[in-house]
Design a protein that fits this description.
The protein has helices at residues 66-83, 96-113, and strands at 9-11, 16-22, 26-35, 41-49, 55-56, 88-91, 117-123, 126-129, 138-143. It is an alpha+beta fold. The two termini are 20 Å apart.
């Protein structure tokens, strides 16, 4: 992804990445790769860090830097996969609109990143190779082996 992104700090063995959204206001953010109970699946989450230290994945900060935030999330993937090369990263939006936003981003970037990652679309319990312009409930990313 050849978009500007925020500097981020890896934490917790490259399973957490901290950065600040610097738009209309300063918003602390985290990218979380959460280990599920079913290996090799990890859930990818983007959250705001609230003043009390809790996380919120429903807030819309409307900070004017959505593209830069999504590019930052995408740029954490190589760091994560460097530590967990056999992982399957699952994600979807916290609502339908955000899931659609992720789909638009994947539609745009899938050809540029196909040499590094395999993208899957998820509907219900079914996984399939990601197809442009097909609607999915969620997505998965797998590192291609060289």
């Amino acid at each position: 992804m050849n978009q500007p992104f925020y500097e981020f700090t890896p934490q917790d063995n490259a399973q957490t990445f901290d950065f600040e959204s610097l738009g209309k206001q300063i918003v602390k953010k985290k990218v979380l790769y959460q280990n599920t109970n079913q290996k090799p699946f990890y859930n990818l989450a983007l959250v705001d860090v609230l003043e009390d230290g809790s996380f919120d994945d429903m807030t819309e900060s409307r900070n004017g830097d959505m593209e830069k935030i999504l590019a930052t999330v995408a740029n954490t993937l190589p760091f994560f996969f460097d530590r967990f090369p056999d992982a399957i990263v699952l994600f979807r939006g916290s609502d339908e609109r955000r899931t659609r936003l992720y789909q638009i981003l994947i539609n745009r970037e899938v050809d540029n990143l196909a040499h590094v990652f395999t993208f899957l679309g998820i509907n219900g319990l079914n996984f399939e190779k990601f197809r442009k312009n097909k609607t999915y409930d969620g997505f998965a990313i797998i590192l291609k082996k060289s």
